[in-house]
Design brief:
The chain has helices spanning 16-19, 28-43, 55-62, 72-95, 108-111, 116-128, 144-148, 152-163, 200-204, 218-230, 245-250; strands spanning 9-14, 47-52, 101-106, 132-137, 168-173, 194-195, 234-239, 257-259. By secondary structure, it is of the alpha/beta class.
């Protein structure tokens, strides 16, 4: 049973394709719409935690690069430059609604170490003060994602949901949800509204790569759903190109694909 009214602490992951144009520059209109809705959800009494991609793409644009660099040091440089731009925009836009943001850069090594408790404590204090944490992989230090293109921010979002004791994980992507086939090539592909079990069939229809600016694809979202579901957290995939679909979800309407947890 999926009851959106029971979801108070919510982790929302934003992909690069949601935040930027194909040029790598910020999609300002969409980002403004998303921040407005996030602020509205926060004002309604919910606790919002963002896991935001986009730093490498924004850095590429700022440094005048047309294609994603192949060497890791340049990717790190793009991430460092882009992260500043990303946080500047979040701070500016949320500030218009009298909300405060905080930057948290994580690595998988921290999440796997005893120091994870320090991160948990920091999150709790931020949420207690109604601050919106903005989380990203620390790509200038942890280069796994940059080198392997694993779409780690999907996985990162699931782990953030676990140690934040979230009630719901939402992944905003460039697709409406999980389909029975590839909707770009199969006109008969249908959106799957609810997934109650992730199995081999689920994985077999989740192929496909990410955008030219981002990484990963549907399979990384399935992996994130499995991690979250096993921890008792429901997950939803929504199309971030239509920010208002978030209102549909929180109004109790059918939206995207819901992955039900094993509670």
């Amino acid at each position: 049973m999926f009851d959106i009214n029971e979801k108070k602490r919510i982790v929302i992951k934003l992909g690069t394709s949601t935040l930027t144009h194909r040029t790598g520059r910020l999609n300002i209109r969409r980002m403004e719409s998303l921040v407005k809705i996030f602020s509205d959800l926060q004002n309604s009494g919910r606790e919002i935690i963002l896991v935001s991609s986009g730093a490498v793409g924004l850095g590429m644009s700022k440094l005048g690069l047309v294609e994603k660099p192949k060497d890791t040091p340049m990717k790190q440089a793009c991430a460092a430059v882009g992260q500043c731009e990303l946080m500047y925009m979040y701070d500016k836009l949320f500030g218009e609604y009298n909300l405060t943001v905080a930057q948290i850069l994580l690595t998988k090594y921290i999440l796997e170490s005893p120091r994870k408790n320090n991160v948990e404590n920091a999150f709790e204090k931020l949420l207690e003060k109604r601050v919106i944490p903005v989380v990203n992989e620390n790509d200038t230090v942890a280069i796994d994602e940059l080198e392997l293109e694993l779409g780690e921010n999907d996985t990162l979002a699931a782990h953030v949901g676990i140690f934040c004791k979230a009630d719901l994980l939402i992944i905003l992507s460039d697709i409406d949800g999980l389909y029975t086939g590839n909707p770009n090539s199969d006109p008969n592909a249908e959106l799957i509204p609810v997934v109650t079990e992730i199995n081999e069939e689920t994985r077999s229809i989740a192929g496909g790569a990410g955008s030219s600016l981002g990484s990963g694809g549907m399979i990384t979202k399935i992996n994130a759903a499995e991690i979250a579901n096993n921890a008792g957290i429901d997950m939803v995939i929504l199309n971030g190109k239509n920010p208002k679909v978030l209102y549909d979800l929180f109004d109790g309407k059918s939206a995207g694909t819901v992955f039900l947890s094993k509670k």
